[in-house]
Amino acid sequence: GDSVTQMEGPVTLSEEAFLTINCTYTATGYPSLFWYVQYPGEGLQLLLKATKADDKGSNKGFEATYRKETTSFHLEKGSVQVSDSAVYFCALITGANSKLTFGKGITLSVRP
Amino acid sequence: KAGVTQTPRYLIKTRGQQVTLSCSPISGHRSVSWYQQTPGQGLQFLFEYFSETQRNKGNFPGRFSGRQFSNSRSEMNVSTLELGDSALYLCASSLAGEKNIQYFGAGTRLSVL
C-alpha cells in the first residue's frame, strides 16, 4: 500500500536558520504530493502541492520539488520565523480516490 | 467564503456511549472525508462521502459510521465508545475528491473517560 516516511523530530531552529524536512514516499501509481501544516489547536492547512514529476510547489517562502527518481518531496525554507512553529505533514493521494495518506508529522520549533 | 465547519469543537463522553460529530463543507464542495488523529497512530483515513454515497472507507471497525445529506453536510457516528477512540476528528472537503485539494476544518476533540 501507499506510505509516506518523514524524518524523525522534533526540530528546533533559531530564527532565520535554513529548514529542510525530509519526506519520501511509496505509492502504486502516480501520486499527487502535499505538505500540510497544523498550528496548535487548529486543523490542517495546505501549505503547498505538486502533481507531477519535477513540479515545484511553493508558498510563504516554503518550497518542495516532486522528485520521482528518488520518490521524495523534501520541504525547504531559506529563513524560518518564530511564526513557522507548527507541525508539518507530508501526504499523498493516488488513483481515483480522495484518501490522503500522511506521514507521522514533525514538530518544528523556532526560537527567537 | 466560509471554510469547513465542524461542531462541536470539544466533546467529553464515557465508555459505552455513542457520539455524533457534524461537518459542514465549503459551499459547492461535494466530497467530504473524515480522519482520525491520535499521537500514536497519527492521521488515519476513516471514510469519504460523495453525493450522499460512501465512496471510500478506511480500516476502522463498524462502530464508526457516517452519512452525507443532500446539502453535502456530513455526520460521523461512533457507537459503544472505547478509551482508544479519544482523538481529534478532522473533516475535509473538496470539489470532487479525485486528487483535488482537501480543505480541513478545525476538528472535534473527543475525550472518552
Features:
heterodimer, A: 112 residues, mainly beta, 6-stranded mixed beta sheet, 0% helix, globular, B: 113 residues, 7-stranded mixed beta sheet, 4-stranded antiparallel beta sheet, 11 strands
What does this structure look like?
The complex is a heterodimer of chains A (112) and B (113). Chain A has 112 residues and is mainly β. In chain A, 0% of the residues lie in helices and 50% in strands. Chain A starts with a strand and ends with a strand. With 113 residues, chain B is an all-beta fold. In chain B, a hairpin with a 2-residue loop joins strand 5 and strand 6. The mean pLDDT of chain B is 93. The interface between A and B is medium-sized, with 24 and 26 residues.
Show the helix and strand layout.
The complex is a heterodimer of chains A (about 110) and B (about 110).
Chain A: E1 3-6, E2 11-14, E3 19-21, E4 23-26, E5 32-38, E6 44-50, E7 56-59, E8 62-65, E9 75-77, E10 86-93, E11 101-102, E12 106-111
Parallel strand pairs in A: 2-12
Antiparallel strand pairs in A: 1-4, 3-9, 5-6, 5-10, 7-8, 8-9, 10-11, 10-12
Chain B: E1 5-7, E2 10-13, E3 19-24, E4 31-38, E5 42-50, E6 53-57, E7 64-68, E8 74-78, E9 87-94, E10 103-104, E11 108-112
Parallel strand pairs in B: 2-11
Antiparallel strand pairs in B: 1-3, 3-8, 4-5, 4-9, 5-6, 7-8, 9-10, 9-11
